[in-house]
Amino acid sequence: MKPEHALNPKLKQLMKELGDAINESLSESEQISDVITRIKQGGYDVFLVLEATIGFNRREDQAPAGRSSLSRGEKKGEPDFRLNAQDVKFLKSLRISSEDAA
Asked: Do 62 and 8 meet the contact criterion of CB atoms below 8 Å apart?
């Protein structure tokens, strides 16, 4: 019997492609490259570690037959969404207003 939390191969491949696309877009960013160059010119070595949390929820209309898309304890409706100060700082660095997310 297959565990419910196991990823199907298609979703696993799509997640890998998403990670590759994010890495490529960061490495091709002129703005990031320019700032890294200036930091190096200032005499510093640079390394960049980003943490991303990407979640997947199966939409109810596409759940496998006989299986609810809601896990135990989940409620239908709006998700509980909170931003901490670090989240707001990160969004601002991407020029995303946190007020739009509220």
From this structure: no
What residues of the chain score a pLDDT lower than 70? 1-7, 61-79, 100-102
Domain residues of the chain, as ranges?
1-60
Q: CA 61 to CA 28: how far, in whole Å?
A: 37
Is 0.70 surpassed by the pTM of this model? no
Tokens 């191969």 belong to 9
How far is 45 from 79, CA to CA, in rounded Å? 41
Read off the pLDDT of residues 66-75 as tens digits, 9 standing for 90 and up.
554 444 445 5
- Looking up tokens 């320019």, which residue turns up? 34
Cβ-based neighbours of 11, under 8 Å, separated by 6 or more? 56
Assess contact for 88 and 98: CB atoms under 8 A: yes
What is the C-alpha separation between 48 and 39, in angstroms, rounded? Answer: 12
Q: Nearest 5°: CA angle at 48, between 46 and 25?
A: 115
